[in-house]
Amino acid sequence: MVDRARLAEFLRNRREALQPEDVGLPRGGRRRTGGLRREEVAVLSGMSVDYYSRLEQRRGPHPSEQVLAALAGGLRLSLEERDHLFRLAGHVVPQRALRADHVNPGMMRIFDGLDDAAAQVVNYVGETLKQTRLSKALIGDESVRTGPARSMHYRWFTDPGTRARYPEEDHEEHSRLIAANLHELHTRDPADPRVTALVEALLAESDEFAALWREHPVAGLYCPLKRVRHPRLGLLELHCQTLVDPDRSQLLVVYTAPAGSESHDKLRLLSVIGDQRI
Known about the structure:
Blueprint: H1 4-17, H2 38-45, H3 49-56, H4 65-74, H5 79-88, H6 105-112, E1 118-123, E2 128-131, H7 133-139, H8 152-158, H9 160-163, H10 171-188, H11 193-205, H12 207-214, E3 226-230, E4 234-244, E5 250-256, H13 262-273
Antiparallel strand pairs: 1-2, 1-5, 3-4, 4-5
């Protein structure tokens, strides 16, 4: 049963505790409150201002789990705070083992400052949680994937279109790195249901993965120099910088190129045109 009064109070409290700078927004002009405006939270959460306002006014509809997850992201809630939000709205708290889709607040704050970079937040099983506009233009919008295909690890071994983004001569190295990463995760926690399901699916569907798995591959650099073949700009040679969250559940990945290089010029062009036709 939804506790409308406490839900409204919790949302308002967390909204007022956030500053525009915390979410990558300009402060601008005079503000009546010290925190975010309702319309800013609505935009950050991907919903209408009217819908969010009604929740704070104790007269909104019963929010779904999808709406609550969006609000948790928009308000930069910790996992514990997200649990509380779900309880207030009368929903069962999701199992922690299945919550790798929630970007940690600290990681989100860093991501918010990378609007002009090709950056993305990826969880430990290779699912992209957030992408900047330039990242989507570079490698495609990975948020539209569903099921096992949400994982880049799964797509690499099962989807030829995913491999087409990278030169064929680099495929063997990518395959070994991904298999080694999964092997390390499985060795570290054999009971993890997400890793187990991913490994079992790949063993059943990919002979290449199965052969690599039998070799007990050891992970090296997770994100070395990467060559990406863009469908319109051609080949880009990019450096891949990663920031690992303290609990090792997420990575912030940023693609860069040396200033003055051809790949740097292509990235700058891509930041302007996005996914428009050249």
